[in-house]
Amino acid sequence: KAGVTQTPRYLIKTRGQQVTLSCSPISGHRSVSWYQQTPGQGLQFLFEYFSETQRNKGNFPGRFSGRQFSNSRSEMNVSTLELGDSALYLCASSLSGSGTGELFFGEGSRLTVL
Amino acid sequence: DAKTTQPNSMESNEEEPVHLPCNHSTISGTDYIHWYRQLPSQGPEYVIHGLTSNVNNRMASLAIAEDRKSSTLILHRATLRDAAVYYCILRSTGANSKLTFGKGITLSVRP
Known about the structure:
Number of strands of chain A: 11
Oligomer: heterodimer
Number of strands of chain B: 10
Mean pLDDT of chain A: 93
């Protein structure tokens, strides 16, 4: 079965712009979570959605937002981009989002902010 | 949130067992211990997880201390393809299951 698909894979933006990243989970998975990965901070949790509701949120400013659609696809948006937002953004899907299940990660969207 | 502590790096020889340690002294009773690994230019990949008892699967074994304050991921015979960053993560049950990643341990495998 198809894995987690993230689009776009690579993108370049300039400071002040906004960006929208998309994540299509594995069919049947209802939980989607997002992570930011940078060399300095490692992998950091952004937020998690389950059945179109945000269940959990990490310690990121309000410029980072997300949503989930009825088909479980999810998008995250970063507004007023800063240089420090350059990172690999990963999404992961799971059946229920509880601690008992494994997460399936996509290959990520690499954002470069100039 | 409960955190994990891992060494920065380890080296192993090919076809030898590898023991990757993780400390999680603030683990709560509802936290599962998960291990993921990330190969270069890829997203993290699930390896194994457990709650209290030791676990085995086709990829690895997970040994959990009796007090659950530490665990060890065991790769029985390291291959060159096992060279990756390994993350030990605590994941709570229930609706607010937040994942907190540490820095991970970089495993190098010598041929």
